[in-house]
Design brief:
The protein is α/β, with parallel strands linked by helices and 470 residues long. It has two domains: 154 residues, Rossmann fold; 277 residues, tm_1862 like domain (pyruvate-formate lyase- activating enzyme, Alpha-Beta Horseshoe), CATH 3.80.30.20. It is 37% helix and 16% strand. It has a seven-stranded mixed sheet, sandwiched between helices. Strands 8-11-12-13-14-15 form a six-stranded parallel sheet. It is globular, with a radius of gyration of 22 Å. Bound molecules: cobalamin and iron/sulfur cluster (SF4).
Length: 470
């Protein structure tokens, strides 16, 4: 029997120097499906070479896909109507499944306005397997828990939730063999460096914290790959890909402290010297000098430090409850080791006042962070904070346009401060934070690719002009 042909694509375009990484979600799914079915799989990441939608459709047709899986963030979902219409026209009998953060956020609504057949929220491996089994065994998907599907002209939400993989070590390594890594090595990754041979890792899923603006893709229980398995994976990439630079995308890599020490200890014993970065951040109030020393010995050189707010009142409101004193101490200690530290800060929370904003700016400014990005809160359905605004201030949701928006350029203001003042504080944040000779000195001293720093200057000015320019 010929293998089942599965075409997996990650949607969206790369518009600036901001990061692009290998599409881990569909790479994990591909690796898993290979262990379950006789399949031939092709992976396409639209973002890496800004492949036009029509080219993506052409490739799916040429490949002769029996099943198409499309993965996307909400910011990338705007092309779904066009792409699914053309995919259906080119391959009328092919099952189109959508999944990823957008479906996890929008649920049944993610099937509105497009021609995808099935939408899979949350973790994808087991649910996609169940969808394929149901499709090729009579087509009845009513028994697949937690998915959204079309039936008799309507969208149906199946009862139950899509299952999580309990033992993460039972999953195969993501299918790096289906991805050409070279183009990724030439553009900035989430770690804002380029021209470096790296691999992205995702060594844990789920998070026990309760920040009310955050996704729930992997549930609220931390599941981890064992330290031994993480090291096996690292050794595999060193051996087979000649890579010694590893970018961790975990949400809370350092929550399991024993595992952190185990992983760092095993890395320090490797024959090859490796470099580690944590561009999605660590939970900084859960670090201490010992864990920072262990990470340093293992090779950490670049780390995001999520602060979000410098106001204890807002910390409580958003459920982050970060210990700001410990945060500052640990940033200082990490920076003293010349590890490049990037602050993630958010502004625009409901009820946030000028006083809160001032506290946030002051906290960022007194920190030893090398850089900071002052994001505006972007609300996604499926989060508690979205429901709060929906209840108290629904008018504010009307203007949200997620389409193709990037990172620091989203311009929303859900705070109590009028827009004019609010964006003034955002610009002030960038100005006060960066207009500091000691910080500029440390950036140029500790950034690994000083020569590429000028590339980020236009990005800096865009942020500095937020709320003034278009
Ligand atoms: C790396 C990362 C990025 C990178 C690269 C993202 C990319 N895809 O190119 C960069 C830095 C560019 C980025 C940017 C942004 N990001 Co981001 N990012 C992440 C991060 C930290 C890791 C993503 C990852 O690799 N996960 C690991 C893989 C294994 O998980 P996964 O992709 O979700 O796949 C699993 C399931 O979703 C599902 N699945 C995925 N695809 C498919 C497809 C099918 C068919 C099926 C069945 C299942 C399925 O199965 C997979 C395996 O279980 C996540 C947080 C997180 N923990 O996931 C946020 C996250 C994806 N980002 C998020 C956001 C909000 C953003 C920004 C909009 C931030 C902002 N306000 O500007 C920008 C968007 C920029 C843009 N225009 O694209 C949100 C998404 C929310 C949403 N509804 O879309 C997340 C979830 C974090 C959060 N705070 O909530 N991000
Ligand atoms: S923001 Fe980070 S710490 Fe908070 S719930 Fe999300 S992943 Fe967990």
């Amino acid at each position: 029997m010929r293998p089942l042909k599965i075409f997996l694509a990650s949607l969206g375009f790369r518009k600036s120097v901001l990061g692009t990484i290998p599409p881990l979600g569909i790479m994990y799914i591909a690796a898993y499906l290979r262990t379950k079915f006789n399949v031939e799989i092709r992976i396409v990441n639209q973002k890496i070479n800004n492949m036009p939608d029509d080219e993506l459709v052409k490739q799916a047709k040429e490949f002769g896909a029996d099943v198409i899986g499309l993965s996307m963030l909400t910011t990338n979902a705007y092309s779904l109507p066009y792409t699914t219409r053309n995919l259906k026209a080119a391959l009328p009998d092919t099952l189109i499944v959508i999944g990823g953060p957008h479906v996890s956020a929008f649920g049944a609504k993610s099937l509105e306005g497009n021609l995808a057949d099935v939408a899979v929220p949350y973790e994808g491996e087991l649910a996609f397997e169940a969808v394929i089994n149901a499709h090729f065994n009579g087509g009845n998907m009513a028994g697949v828990p937690g998915i959204f599907r079309r039936a008799e002209g309507t969208i149906v939400s199946n009862p139950g939730i899509t299952p999580f993989v309990e033992n993460l070590d039972s999953l195969p390594f993501p299918a790096y063999d289906l991805v050409d890594l070279k183009p990724y090595w030439n553009v900035p990754a989430m770690t804002s460096l380029m021209r470096r041979k790296y691999v992205s890792l995702f060594t844990s899923r789920g998070c026990p914290f309760r920040c009310i603006y955050c996704h729930r893709i992997f549930g609220d229980r931390l599941r981890v790959h064992s330290a031994q398995r993480v090291i096996e994976e690292i050794k595999f990439y060193i051996r087979d890909y000649g890579v010694n630079d590893f970018e961790f995308h975990d949400d809370v890599f350092n929550h399991d402290k024993r595992r952190l020490f185990e992983i760092c200890g095993l890395i320090a014993k490797l024959d090859s010297k490796v470099k580690l970065s944590f561009p999605n951040g660590l939970r900084f109030d859960e670090l201490n000098t010992d864990s920072i020393d262990a990470l340093t010995d293992a090779g950490i050189y670049h780390c995001a430090c999520p602060l979000e707010s410098g106001s204890p009142r807002i910390q409580k409101l958003i459920g982050k409850n970060l210990n700001i004193r410990k945060y500052l101490e640990n940033v200082k200690y990490m920076t003293s080791k010349r590890i490049f530290t990037l602050g993630f800060v958010m502004m625009g929370f409901p009820t946030e006042t000028e006083e809160d904003l001032k506290q946030t700016i002051e906290t960022a400014c007194i920190s030893r962070l090398h850089t900071a990005t002052f994001f505006t809160l972007t609300l996604f359905p499926g989060t508690k904070i979205y429901d709060i605004v929906l209840k108290n201030n629904p008018g504010k949701l009307k203007n949200i346009n997620y389409d193709d928006n990037e990172y620091a350029h989203m311009k929303y203001n859900f705070s109590d401060v009028p827009d004019k003042e609010f964006f003034y504080y955002q610009r002030k944040a960038y100005r006060d934070f960066y207009m500091n000779p000691s910080r500029i000195f440390r950036i140029t001293r500790d950034f690994r690719q000083t020569r590429s720093l000028p590339l980020f200057i236009p990005e800096y000015f865009k942020r500095l002009l937020k709320g003034i320019s278009g």
